[in-house]
Amino acid sequence: MRYFRLLVLGNGISAYGSYLNMVALNVFVYDATGSALAAGLFMAVRLATNVVSGWVSGRLVSAYDRKRLMVGADLCQAVALLALLLAPDGMRVGLLYALAVVTGGCSTLSQVALRSSIPEIVGAEHRVRANGLLVTGRSLAMIAGFASSGVVVAEFGYSAAFALDAGTFVVSATMLFLLPVRTKAATAGGGSAEASGAARWTARMLLGTAPVLMAMVAIRAVDGLGSSSHNVALPLYSSSLDPDHPATFISQFWATWAIGNIVAQQVIGRVTKKSGRTPGERAFALGACVMSAGFIVVFCGLPTVPAVIAALIAGAADGFTEIVYVSRLQTAPDDQRGRLFGLSASAENSGFGLGMLVSGALLEKFSPLQVVAAFHGLAIGLCAALLLVLLRRGRTRGPEASDTVGRDTSTVTEGRG
């Protein structure tokens, strides 16, 4: 865990740059083109790349050294940002869409590779704690990135923001390169046979031989719809609460959400260490229900204190669900894990991208509460259905096999929890 904490630090630094850049680039596209359509197209290109790269990343992670892939992904993003920084003003607009492809693809590849590697880096018995540390690091990075982006751009300009972002990727790549960590299980067989077996397993999974696991992936895709709805609706809702200071509620919401994420990491880490058991599919379904319900309550027009409490609960449930979900997927054998996380990344990004488009259209006719309730209500319905199925299965099969830390994971291909 000593080396992993340094890895978390490096990942958090690069995540800070990504969140800073997310704001700076979107604003820069609009300023450079004067077109909302161009800004929307930039986001669409990046989201589409995220979706496609999920499938590609799963194959790459299964076939090649994950540490090298993560280092390469960070360096590619740094080079792309430096190219944009050094390019003449007349060429920058054209380079933006190439940058969207590079950052979208590399960020997904890095995420898939890292999540797939955690059981090999820290050991299967420590994966829940490690996932919690990553969630905490990224939550803090998100707050810092969003909070500082406006200041950096306003005080120092876009070039400084791009240079700072490139620097964070270089720091992350350097730290990861120097860390003596193993990111892939040692295998006696050939790589091609291993990749072929992973491909066959993915096909079987898609055909329904692992129904519970696939249901969890589907729920994460629908959670992406819900997440996009409250992201799109939040500025409108905040403006209706306080037209003179629309950023106030947004800041309160995200700060409280991040605190909830951190609290969830602390609680689940302590509980797992004390009990020696990892929360399984039932906990995932219940946590997702609480998370979606919390986000709906936030938009109900409550006074500030109850709304902040709802955001805190939603953030804690969000962090809890993320840790449980990733830890569950990490129980897959190493040769299958990369494909599984690639599939998950594509599903989550597809849900989020589709939700951004649909939510924006629906908000033209419906209130933020109606849109958020519809999307998150769908997630609650699916989670409730999964929970009922799991409870019925539990009565006939006994406790979930995957609830024990470090349990052998051959049951993944059978669709059992």
From TrEMBL:
Chief location of this protein within or outside the cell: membrane
Annotated ranges, domain Major facilitator superfamily (MFS) profile: 3-397
Origin: domain of life: Bacteria
One Pfam family matching this protein: MFS_1
Bilayer topology: Multi-pass membrane protein
InterPro entries, per the entry: MFS, MFS_dom, MFS_trans_sf
Residues passing through the membrane, by range: 7-30, 36-57, 69-88, 94-114, 135-154, 160-181, 283-302, 308-328, 340-363, 369-391
Compositional bias per record (Polar residues), positions renumbered to this chain: 407-417
Full protein name: MFS transporter
Keyword entries, A-Z: Cell membrane, Membrane, Transmembrane, Transmembrane helix
CDD domains named among the record's database cross-references: MFS_MefA_like
Region (Disordered): 398-417
Keyword Protein transport in record: no
UniProt-annotated location(s): Cell membrane
